[in-house]
Amino acid sequence: MFLRQKPTEVLSLINGLGQIEFTKVLPVACDADISYIAFEVISDNSYLNEPEHIRGSYCISIDALIYAEDINNEKWIIPIEWKYTEAYNDSSKDDKSLEDYEWRKGEHGKGKERMRRYNGLITKSQQLKSLENYESSAYYFEPFTNLCVKPYGQNK
Fold first, then answer.
1. How crowded is residue 131: how many other Cβ atoms within 10 Å of its Cβ?
2. Is residue 59 within 8 Å of 44, Cβ to Cβ?
3. Which of 70, 119, 129, 140 has its CA 20 to 30 Å from the CA of residue 2?
4. Distance from C-alpha of 129 to C-alpha of 151, rounded to nearest angstrom
């Protein structure tokens, strides 16, 4: 959090990964103040069929995001996920496609709603493998329930 408004340090952080040489970091537009790392980032539009689109609650967000430019002047959106803070110990609840609401046990209502929102998006994706039946598939087991796509450059 202390790095969020320090562009030199953020640039050093991403250049320390050694994969791509970045020349600058750019402010992330979703914060009210100038920020070079933003947290709980959502897009301006809801693309995931979710009923609410509120930063930090009731919708999927990127844990943290950096916007940077590389040596070829290409702009990159760099998503960051904090998986090390999450725990997945209850194997009886691993299959999120079969998850119930507390008040309706046995109907798999939460899982059905989750699949209603995301199955079509998985099928349309160019990065994810389509399936005939998504129920109990790898897409709905923790920690894979957070759909991941390849980071991409804005100019690509």
1. 13
2. no
3. 70
4. 17
Alpha carbon distance 18, 139 (integer Å): 30
Among 94, 88, 83, 80, smallest CA distance to 138 is for 94
pTM: 0.62
Cα 71 to Cα 6: distance, rounded to the nearest angstrom: 20
- Model confidence over 62-108: pLDDT tens digits? 888 999 999 999 999 898 877 655 565 555 567 888 888 888 888 88
- Assess whether the previous peptide bond of 143 is cis (omega < 30° from 0): yes
